[in-house]
Amino acid sequence: MPVLGSCGCPRTSITPLKSAHGSSRRLPSWRSRGLHDEAVGRSSSRGNRESSFRDRATAGPHDRDTSKRYMPETTVYLVRHGMHDWLRPEHNRFAGAIPGVGLNEEGRQEVQRLAGLLSGEPIAWIVASPLQRTMETAAILARTRRLDVAADERLLEWRCGAWEGMKIIEIQRRYPSAWKIWRERPDLLRLPGAETVEQMAARTEVAYRAWAASGGTGVLVSHQDPLAALLCTLIGAPLRAMRALDIQTASLSTSHEMAYGTVIAAINAGRPVA
């Protein structure tokens, strides 16, 4: 039964990106021009970073030190929490930031499997959204490492206002126009009481940058929509592209912070191949 839900760096095995219906999904193509408008308050700094990247990329062999260029300064495993009952088809609700939604048995088992895949990694820190399902996920990953799990509210699920706790079928009936925008152009949705996708992406990126600055290898546990928005931000894609990223439960995406910028080495890894 399908789950319903809203270079030179080390290589990681990648499970093919699947949609909720099991079909392969491909990221849409886009042009780089105008992408800076998708970011909130970061247009100038991002442009400077991209210009600096191009300058370094075209420099001659005597213009740069390549000894550490292709070794990650930081590796961050971006993990979505495990399965919970509200994601099952018979419930199919927007959990949002509602407290008390914890992992079910399936979720605990799939996170335990993910912990096994990460067992050989030198993980130095683990941070999670403070909601129950993400903290439980992080606790399973930290269990054999004697690591404390830090909670960071900037990693919370999308604050969806009136939709929080509602069944998807009810949202579709009561808010048909808004639901269509959410599915097709989430970056354009303006819902009373809800934050915008830009606001969600901005707070998630700030948290990611702060924790990545710790260095070493770490795990960041969050939710489907914040992780999809973060991945779009990290690769310079417009936020409308987040709908092409079906971030599945207990999956991990791998981000390397290199000397020349961010490299995404895997998306939705750690899931069994259907």
Helix content: 25-40%
- Count structural domains: 1
Low-pLDDT runs of 5+ residues are: 1-47, 49-64
- Please name the CATH architecture: 3-Layer(aba) Sandwich
CATH superfamily placement:
Phosphoglycerate mutase-like
Q: Average pLDDT value?
A: 81
CATH domain class name = Alpha Beta
Q: What are the secondary-structure elements, in order, as H or E? A: HEHEHEHHHEHEE
Beta-strand residue fraction: 5-15%
Helix-strand category? alpha/beta
Query: What is the radius of gyration computed over CA atoms, rounded to a whole number of angstroms?
Result: 19 Å
Give me the CATH fold name.
Rossmann fold
Biggest β-sheet: count, sense, barrel? 6 strands, mixed
The helix tally amounts to: 7
Protein name: Histidine phosphatase family protein
Binding site for substrate: 133
Biased composition (Basic and acidic residues): 47-69
InterPro entries: His_Pase_superF_clade-1 (IPR013078), His_PPase_superfam (IPR029033), PGM_Phosphatase (IPR050275)
Write a structural description.
- The chain is built from seven helices and six strands; from the N terminus they run H-E-H-E-H-E-H-H-H-E-H-E-E.
- The chain has helices spanning 43-57, 105-117, 132-142, 168-174, 176-184, 197-212, 224-235; strands spanning 74-80, 123-128, 149-151, 216-222, 252-258, 261-269.
- A six-stranded mixed β-sheet has the order 3-2-4-1-5-6, with helices on both faces.
- A hairpin with a 2-residue loop joins strand 5 and strand 6 (261-269).
